[in-house]
Amino acid sequence: MKKFNLTRRTLALLSAALFIVTLLAGCAGSEDATPSDGGNSSDPIVVGMEISSDGVFEARDENGDPWGVSVQILKDFGEYVGREIKIENVAFDGLIPSLQTNKIDMSLSSMTITDARAEMVDFSDPYANAYLAILASSGSNIESVDDLNQSGKSVAVTTGSTGYNYAIQNLPDATVLSLSDAGACITEVIQGKADGFIRDQLSVYRANQQNPDTTKAILIPFQSAEHWGAAFPKGSDELRTQFNEFLAFYKEDGGFDRITEEYMSEYKTAFDELGFKWFFDFDEE
Asked: pTM for this one?
């Protein structure tokens, strides 16, 4: 009898110990877990983008929800792979650090593919082509990019953007105002605190149309197209491959034509009249 009681107590203690070890192991596993490749179909795909109060690519609707071209592309991508998309609002200069620390699975935020960025993240195939332009204060004497490159002139740019890189490399005599988002840059120009804001043509055109009395749009000639791509943590080959396959399907299926019609038809008309290359003219590459 004593032998049975001892065995029962021993088994109980062993069972309790095993339960505690299993519980601790489970907690440790969840604490160390990070988005490894964005490929777990049971989890949402967490996407970082800088959501602006204005714009047509990464903006908000009347309810404050993410809206625009990039958001629609993500929704269609989610349907293509059968996964939920969760969008996180991240300042542009925080997107790459968020990818490097696996806080997000990917980013789709009008980010230009550059060699420097490609050393830190992996890019998808290009999903859009863009050129830079200047939004200038209507009260300034700025008529070309050379007019900005003078002592006493100031140019607003979004921190970490290709507009920022362009200003640093090509406007050494100007004062470069590096701000956190595009809306702040536009406000600086409207209020006459900055002589110009360098951004992609569509953003500049749109801002000028909305503020015709206080701004003017100026093209920067002799540029090569910027290629925008989705960015992924290094080594996220599965999710990046899925996105590239989606882009190929989307082009063939007329997805970019539908997006243009729904979100950008008036801008497409204006670009055609001005002779500008459109964002999704991939066949002309």
From this structure: 0.71
